[in-house]
Amino acid sequence: MAKCEVCGKSPAHYVCQRCRGLVCESCFDSLMQTCVACLNQASEGDKPVGAAVPNWFLRLFLVGFAATVTGVLLMLLSGIGEGSGALVILIGPVPVTLGYGPHASTLAAVALMLTAIGIMVMFFARRGR
Ligand SMILES: [Zn+2]
Ligand SMILES: [Zn+2]
Fold this sequence. Notes:
Bound molecules: zinc ion
Distance between the termini: 47 Å
Strand content: 15-25%
Number of domains: 2
Number of helices: 3
Radius of gyration: 26 Å
Number of strands: 6
Mean pLDDT: 76
Largest sheet: 2 strands, antiparallel
Order of helices and strands: EEEEHHEEH
Strand order of the largest sheet: 1-2
Low-confidence stretches: none
Shape: rod-shaped
Structural class: alpha+beta
């Protein structure tokens, strides 16, 4: 019987799904199906083992969402007073502005500016990592 590759003492009954090493019961994590050495490595790394949505995509989505909310807010605020409004929608990295009423272009510019600030914040947040 092969000896555990982690502690080298107990007989190995399990195979780590990460490094394929033979490990004993006490050196094997049945939940993660890996040895404790791989478990420690996995917890040290900042990336989860499973496939995750990339960070930039989430940020882009959040910024797009925030910009859309901002646009809707502007539309609502202005809609009460002067009957004009603007909306910024992010299609990927391309902002599309929609507006109506006499102050549409001003509102669209403000909404675009807020979007640009959001993108800048996103950009610097990415750089800071
Ligand atoms: Zn062991
Ligand atoms: Zn392992």
